[in-house]
Amino acid sequence: MIGPSIRIDSCKGCGLCIASCPRQVLAFSERINARGVRYAVARSAENCADCGTCYLMCPDAAIEVLELAPLARTG
């Protein structure tokens, strides 16, 4: 999997991650989680730039951004 990984039951549905995503990767799910709210989902993870904005904006640390391609280390 690439892009943002969202812990569904940790999401409180505030939408801060959705509003802050510069590439509009995230959206609200049509389903509800254990908290009874529509949670964030990655609707187009392939467009994720790995910027981490959603991760930084999430007040509940419900998002982890997975690297699309690990950076090669030289040295």
Give a written overview of the molecule.
A hairpin with a 5-residue loop joins strand 2 (26-32) and strand 3 (38-42). It is globular, with a radius of gyration of 13 Å. The chain is built from two helices and four strands, in the order βαββαβ. The protein has helices at residues 16-20, 53-57, and strands spanning 3-6, 26-32, 38-42, 63-66. The longest helix has 5 residues, at 16-20. Mean pLDDT is 88; it is low at 71-75. The strands form two sheets. It has a two-stranded antiparallel ribbon with strand order 1-4. Strands 2-3 form a two-stranded antiparallel ribbon. It has one domain: 2-Layer Sandwich (Alpha-Beta Plaits), CATH 3.30.70.20. The chain has 75 residues and is of the alpha+beta class.
> How many helices in DSSP terms?
2
- Summing up helix and strand content along with how strands pair, one would put the structural category as alpha+beta
CATH topology (fold) name: Alpha-Beta Plaits
Oligomerization state of this entry? single chain
Tell me the CATH architecture.
2-Layer Sandwich
Tally the beta strands: 4
Q: Fraction of residues in helices?
A: 10-25%
Number of domains: 1
| Strand residue content | 25-35%
Sheet with the most strands: spatial strand order: 1-4
| Rg (CA only) | 13 Å
The CATH class label is: Alpha Beta
* Order of secondary-structure elements: EHEEHE
Distance between the termini: 29 Å
What's the SSE blueprint?
Layout: E1 3-6, H1 16-20, E2 26-32, E3 38-42, H2 53-57, E4 63-66
Antiparallel strand pairs: 1-4, 2-3
Brief overview, please?
The chain is 13% helix and 27% strand.
